[in-house]
Amino acid sequence: MNLPLIDRASEYADNIAIVATGGVFTYRDLLHTSGQIATGLLQNADDLQEQRVAYLIPSGFEYVATQWGIWRAGGIAVPLCTVHPRPELEYVITNAGASMIIAHPDFAEILRPIAQSHNLRFVLTSDLVAESSDDRLPTIEMTRRALILYTSGTTGKPKGVVTTHQQIQAQVTSLIAAWEWTADDRILHVLPLHHIHGIINVLTCALWAGAQCHMLAKFDAETIWNRIGVGELTLFMAVPTIYVKLINAWEAMDRDCQQHLSAGCANIRLMVSGSAALPVTVLEKWQEIGSHFLLERYGMTEIGMALSNPLHGDRSAGSVGTPLPQVSVRLVDDNGALVPPGTPGEIQVKSHGVFLEYWQNPAATAKAFQSGWFWTGDLAVVEHGNYRILGRISVDIIKTGGYKVSALEIEEVLRLHPDIQECAVVGVEDPEWGERVCAAIVLQPSRQLTLASLRSWAKEQLAVYKVPTQIVVIAELPRNVMGKVTKPPVVELFRSS
Length: 497
Ligand code: AMP
Known about the structure:
The chain is α/β, with parallel strands linked by helices. The protein binds adenosine monophosphate.
């Protein structure tokens, strides 16, 4: 028996699977090359038996064939991040206990020394695809571990999140049902491939559905617009910062060009945003530019996707909708008791898509679950039947003067100020207030802003205890590779000032 993903690929053998810089590849090509890679990885073994295989390959056909090759050989795929420096790559490789590293020749220089210093097998993708394929690949049970993705580690060392084939299947089939993926879909893949959004929501959903995945080797707003302008895409998924970059690029174009690209955008059947809060200002601008009310969804590496606005029917700005098919979600207080609608609570999730364990960290795994429910560490509130995310409890929920306030809510309001382009609100310890509300602000070009004028404006919009007591103006917000604002360095800005 094969993995269902592989069986399905045989059914779609003649369909185009991947369109990338290297060419156009069918599902048959993917089956053939991943078979070669699996054979090359096995050498003469029968089964990799969940050995961890780390790999660093740019977005494209070889990336996908390698991931499938690892799975078909019985290994656990550990994708690395193309822009991580050596210490971070080394951390993931050693934490996962990888026994081998597969590198695209572009990354050989950085990875070969790591392999040598830890005595690991090192292979180039080009060597693996030169192998002939063996038909006798192992049988892989769905309960076996498939993937380890590392959390971004904003509040500690990154943890390896382990998912099995069965859990990946549950994550993917839930999204396929909710967003009605079919083999006729064509998606443009513009996301990093070491993170759940790019790996599961875009790549694996597309391949499960027998659809086409058009992969860009690197992010470039103009290239993305050109592809949208062709008018053949049916789906697009990105993080909010990508939509911001696309808006900026669109605004810099001439009128004819704008009209042409907007028409291409209107041809897409669904555009999704997630992985960070989508500012309502961005959602509204995108509606103007692309005639799309972006579908915002919520999920995390540990759970896959949990909440989504509807594909059909009314979407609500600033909200992430309701639970996805086959996913149970509830909100609880600090003691684990359910909270009623309108009261903020921590999001708990239970589904067949929730991860198996943190890699070799049973204490962290045990702490994260209670009676089968996973504690997400995110706070939300249900309003008019829809969930609204208030932020990560560890960094976005500020305890000030006896109140708990949501940094995301304050940011949403501050972004409405005419002089503010972007902002990040944090809590900074304070002997009197517990924490003070502080805001790092990126101004609109050639604007200035004083704390006093911001405060008097903000008091009209927010309860006084939510109004920032200190601001710092910076050129750019610190972000991780997924485009998410990293809050600990923002807190440091205020500590040091
Ligand atoms: P990651 O595991 O890297 O995908 O990060 C997951 C975290 O991103 C969640 O725990 C949330 O804090 C945040 N997140 C994901 N989607 C959203 C969203 N739509 N709105 C606000 N925060 C989000």
